[in-house]
Specification:
The complex is a heterodimer of chains A (about 450) and B (about 140). Chain A has about 450 residues and is α/β, with parallel strands linked by helices. Chain A is built from 22 helices and eight strands. Chain A has three domains: about 130 residues, Fumarate Reductase Iron-sulfur Protein, Chain B, domain 2 (Orthogonal Bundle), CATH 1.10.1060; about 160 residues, 3-Layer(aba) Sandwich (Rossmann fold); about 130 residues, AF0625-like (Rossmann fold), CATH 3.40.50. Chain A is globular, with a radius of gyration of 22 Å. Chain B is mainly α. Chain B has one domain. Chain B is built from six helices and no strands. The two termini of chain B are about 35 Å apart. Classes of the chains: A alpha/beta (about 450), B mainly alpha (about 140).
Chain lengths: ~450, ~140
């Protein structure tokens, strides 16, 4: 790992400096990015408007530009004009226009969290996030990622993790947390093992856990220890996030996912276990095999699956009376709707808290909090993101919960911001935190 | 719900077109069923047309093709309802509109009747692991 990279020029500067040849190349990039599935989706939208009723952006601002079908048709317009329509060879010479780029950036990056709720409500079953991701990929190929998301990716690419944490700082943090845990539990055998070969579990975290939210990493350590799991962290590859998943840059996404696979091989770990991270799960569990063209299976699981499994098997016991306040659960879109991890957080919470209440709607139908799709890092769209979060804030209020749990760090950040912005008066916690707090002490092994 | 009724009516109209073209003897009860389905489809189609015009977001994103196709299909449904209720003449109108629909099919929005099955099958197969194309070898 190296130091944090030099500051990149802002979007407007990169946009102004864009050579005409790049605009032509963008059309080729679009043509290459569109696979059969995306082409199907582009040709199949009947503009029925059902997606309007599902998108938290549209429900909030009633703006045509927020409509998923509108975003799809933005790409379709260029696709028809310059890739698939008659006379395409002549028109392709003109390339993507600068107006197209501005409009695409605003709609595809600034008005979508890639939550997939529109797909679920689409009469045609179109994979709209996949098409929007293709459009985003074209902008990424032009080096026109919105500020914030651009620097997050640069940092991850150049330093090995999206927070730019140096290896020595990471290992020192883990050692410090281990010491704290031993003091807190009085258990000298409790560890945060680093680079231990042959472990069953290689655990990878959101770097924010190391920098700002150590309680969630400590919670995982307590739970693994209590269940008797043989686990390890890696000093070289520990970042579960993969923001290239949101930008459609498959080569970069493969680089990030490949780092975790390589650490798995180097440590001979059996299972890659992913911390509470929605897109990290979708990227590493479902997409990475395609990005890396893997020919053999890898065991990649969410930490929620592991903890739920240990709870059901009786390896973990909880005292729900430690959480007497009502707890509700926010389902992260990438983990639940697009990831398939639906009942596991419920299995854990129903054992760890006394009063669990679902939001309405929930599970695969849940509304996005607004923090996904890279939105939290794109400061230009922060006001829009908070406004679209109104739908989630209303859901939380209706649940009458005092604690909102969510197994995703992006969601936790957005929920915390919504809590302040809409004065919800709730606590926002991760599922693992709540579980670790309710862990019956006797189950922590001596 | 309007969409379901609309499309059920379209299938009934195509059944009516087939029976009229092939000169099949349709039992009275079935003919009544086709007539009702086509009529309900027509009502739903007109309802969707009004909705498209009256809903600001839907109106803003609609193209002339959306209205034209709706009217074409509504004409098809009306002709089917008339054909199923009377012998002879109206079948000509049904055939003419049917031919217009078949001509439009590969050219415009009607293509969705082909893509629908493909995209739905893909949606069902990949639910919970969407965007994995082709389905990857990740451990299950």
């Amino acid at each position: 790992m190296t130091e944090t990279p030099a500051k990149r020029p802002p979007w407007e500067e990169r946009f102004a400096a864009l050579p005409p040849a790049s605009l032509k190349a963008a059309i080729l990039a679009l043509s290459e990015a569109l696979d059969a599935s995306a082409a199907d989706a582009l040709e199949s939208c009947v503009r029925c408007g059902l997606c309007a009723e599902s998108c938290h952006y549209v429900l909030d601002d009633k703006d045509l530009r927020s409509l998923p079908a509108y975003k799809l048709n933005l790409v379709l317009r260029v696709f028809r004009r310059q890739v698939a329509g008659p006379g395409r060879l002549r028109r392709r010479a003109a390339g993507l226009s600068r107006d197209d780029i501005r409009e695409w950036t605003d709609a595809l990056y600034g008005r979508c969290s890639l939550c997939g709720r529109c797909s679920l409500n689409c009469a045609m079953g179109l994979n709209l996030p996949a098409v929007i991701r293709k459009g985003r990929a074209v902008l990424a190929s032009l080096d026109l990622l919105p500020d914030g998301l651009d620097s997050t990716l640069s940092t991850a690419r150049d330093s090995g993790n999206n927070m730019g944490i140096a290896r020595e700082d990471w290992t020192a943090t883990a050692a410090w947390l281990e010491e704290d845990l031993r003091i807190e539990t009085g258990d000298p055998s409790l560890r945060l093992p680093m680079d231990e070969p042959g472990a069953d579990v290689l655990y990878v975290i959101n770097p924010r856990e190391a920098k700002f939210y150590p309680l969630t990493l400590m919670a995982a350590a307590k739970l693994f220890h209590a269940a008797g799991r043989r686990w390890t962290l890696s000093s070289s590859a520990f970042d579960v996030t993969n923001y290239a998943y949101f930008t459609g840059d498959d080569a970069l996404a493969a680089l990030f996912a490949g780092r975790l696979r390589a650490a798995m091989d180097a440590l001979r770990a059996k299972t890659l276990v992913l911390s509470e991270c929605g897109h990290g799960f979708a990227a590493n569990r479902w997409e990475a095999a395609s990005w890396l063209a893997e020919t053999s299976g890898r065991e990649v699981r969410s930490v929620l699956e592991i903890v739920a499994e240990d709870a059901k098997a009786g390896r973990l016991r909880f005292d729900p009376s430690r959480h007497s306040k009502r707890v509700t659960l926010h389902d992260p879109c990438q983990l639940v709707r697009l990831g398939g991890i639906i009942e596991e957080p419920r299995t854990i919470l129903k054992r760890a808290v006394a009063d669990f209440a679902e939001m309405t709607p929930n599970r695969k139908d849940n509304y996005c909090c607004g923090g996904g799709g890279g939105q939290l890092s794109m400061t230009a769209y922060a006001a829009r993101r908070r406004s679209a979060g109104r739908i989630k804030a209303a859901q939380i209020s209706r649940s009458e919960a005092k604690i909102v749990a969510s197994p995703c760090h992006n969601c936790l950040d957005q929920l915390s911001e919504l809590n302040r912005h809409y004065k919800l008066g709730v606590e926002v916690k991760s599922v693992l935190e709540l579980a670790a707090e309710a862990l019956v002490p006797g189950t922590v092994r001596p | 719900m309007g969409g379901y009724i609309y499309h059920a009516g379209i299938f009934a109209a195509f059944a009516t077109l087939a029976s009229a073209t092939l000169r099949l003897a349709v039992p009275r009860g079935l003919a009544a069923g086709l007539r009702i389905a086509s009529g309900c489809g027509l009502a739903a189609g007109l309802g969707l047309l009004i909705k498209r015009r009256a809903t600001p977001l839907l109106r803003a994103m609609s193209r002339p093709e959306d209205y034209a196709l709706n009217l074409l299909i509504d004409a098809f449904l009306a002709a089917a309802a008339a054909t199923a209720s009377a012998d002879g003449g109206p079948a000509v109108a049904l055939r003419i509109v049917g031919i217009a629909i078949l001509i439009d099919l590969p050219l415009g929005k009607l293509r969705h009747c082909v893509f629908f099955f493909r995209s739905r099958a893909r949606f069902g197969r990949l639910f919970g692991r969407r965007s994995v194309l082709p389905p990857g070898p990740a451990a299950g």
